[in-house]
Prior knowledge:
The structure is a single chain. By secondary structure, the protein is an alpha+beta fold. It has 2 domains: 211 residues; 139 residues, 2-Layer Sandwich (Alpha-Beta Plaits). Helices cover 65% and strands 11% of the residues. The protein contains 12 helices and 7 strands. The strands form 2 sheets. It has a 5-stranded mixed β-sheet with strand order 3-5-6-4-7. Strands 1-2 form a two-stranded antiparallel sheet. Helix 6 packs antiparallel against helix 7. The N and C termini lie far apart (84 Å).
Amino acid sequence: MDILDIIKEYIFYNWILILILSAFAIILVITSFLDKKAEKRLFTLIIIVLLLSIVFFAEYRISDNTNYVLARKILIAIRYSATPFILAHVIYTLVRRIRPFVYIPAGVLLLLDIISVPTGILFTINESTNKLVHFPVIGYLPYIIAGLYCTFLIYILIARSNKRAMEIVPIIFLAVAFVSGVAFPFIYESQFLLIFCTIIAVALFVYYVFSILQLAKKDALTGLLNRQAYYGEVTDYSKDITAIISLDMNGLKQLNDTQGHAAGDEALVVLSVCFVRACKIRQSVYRMGGDEFAIVCRKTTEEEVVKLIERINKYVDETDYSVSIGYSYHEPGTIKTDDLLKASDESMYSNKADYYKNKDRRNN
């Protein structure tokens, strides 16, 4: 079979993948709601998945040929190394405030895979049967690390979400897709090589589309629910709302004036991560505008509200910023939600006045 026939065969088996990645690239260009760094990372991911599909196809083509044992070992090493790197890159792209340390486990596995080609410490090829053989326990390290990356990705996406169905459903879809990508090699053996990259591409594309559909209710900078979502979801006498917490960043104007608006935006993103980390189920964070935020607590006791505020203060204290916080609590249905928000704002403004009074006293 000549090179043209091989190319035609590759296109045939990967045409769906090519279409999905092309659509992904087009929608990235025309929607552009992410920051430039995140966009570049996603474009890089598209290219990596496309290149990896060539590796998978090449391995599939020679999997039954005993004349290419060394080449197959190299391709397997690339595949085993690339999968955790892709998952690490997905985490680094989708999750705010994640440091590059997330690539370290994938880097360690890369070294082991390279060493395994001549030594077989993780895997080898039985030359008599041409079957892939894993070393007991340690040989499954590529699948273990990929599984751990999947688990961490899903955990952190859920932890940093508003715990609402519109966010949880696409995360679950992403989880099912990635887990199937890790599990399918044990079920379908070499046949999974033809669908793995398509699984990854579909998962990312669908998750991105879900993210676009949420834009009407999401704040573009912080990823929190926005003011429109607040007024669309919070009625005058919401039966399950027991408390509202008002939050306002201290010193944003001074930060913008001295270090620029990019520094101010970074501060708002950092604080939004703190708020989301502190919240639990039935506690939703909204960016009301500028440096003003609100947390709506449903079926939450006052003791739980106080603990939530303590968690917020704890996380914010770990940053270079500060916030003023106030809250109001009532039995559900006994007061208009607008009045609950007004009382919460008044409590927050009182806290802010105390903050600046104490700051002036310290400066003097």
